[in-house]
# Entry
Amino acid sequence: MRMGSSWRWQLTRAIRLALRWCWVCCPRRASKGGGFVKWWIYCKLLLKSLYFNSQNNSDTLLDCVFEPVYWIVDNVTCWFGVVFVSLVILLTTSVVLIVYLFVLPAILSNYSWHWVIWHLVCGHWLLTMVVFHYYKATTTSPGHPPKAKVVIPSVSFCKKCIIPKPARTHHCSICNTCVLKMDHHCPWLNNCVGHFNHRYFFSFCLYMTLGCIYCSISSKDLFLDAYGTIEVRKDNCRRPPFRPPPPSDTFSVTTAHKCVIFLWVLTSSVAVALGGLTLWHFILISRGETSVERHINPQREQKTVGDRKGRHSALCASAKAF
Ligand SMILES: [Zn+2]
Ligand SMILES: [Zn+2]
# Structure
């Protein structure tokens, strides 16, 4: 299009809009109170014509409003993944060290030989399983759809990766890639949980829960002893002035008490929290669902039922017409 004709077309459009505006606001045409209503409807129409999209709904609006929040969460989770993995390694190492330094010597000195063998075998087996499954869950790729131009059975198209998505594939906004049979993005693994590492994730949760329960039960007597000693020491601090002070514990004894209390509180808390998560994933696995599908399936079922009802009522109406 030439510049002259474009300029004329823009001018014509502006004049037509101005004339239409005058027609709406014309006092002769506007009846009493009706002018404002027409003017309001016209303004609403103009505004809607600027933003109208047949795909718009409340979900799209919420997504747009929370887009900056999603961006911050995605990026922070991506960076904090390294911190979370370091935290898991640090806490697990500290628990193992405390067990070797304080709990195992108490077991060796207080239990009979067959209980000692049971503790040694059970404890080391749980430790091996936790380390192995955590390593595999962290390092195994969850599985991605092929990016080469191959014909694969797909049900939809990823707008971000520009590739066809096979069934049960979802886009992870933190990894910025599509993941096969995606369950969720786990910050404690700094990895997505998907088709190829789901079993490692679940096994890690299961063995970590069992390991925490084992540590919690094994160190219960030591914890009660350490807690009681600390409480007695607090009472002695509030003694009457005429009583002599009790002999103070050595630094190693005080450290041992604090370490045992830390071990018991940490393992008991993790056992409860991770046990709940493991149970939830066990239920999902028994239902053949992932966490993502558990979230989206009820919405899809509602939509399917609504579509079915709509088709049924349309068929009934056409049958009555005939
Ligand atoms: Zn994608
Ligand atoms: Zn991910």
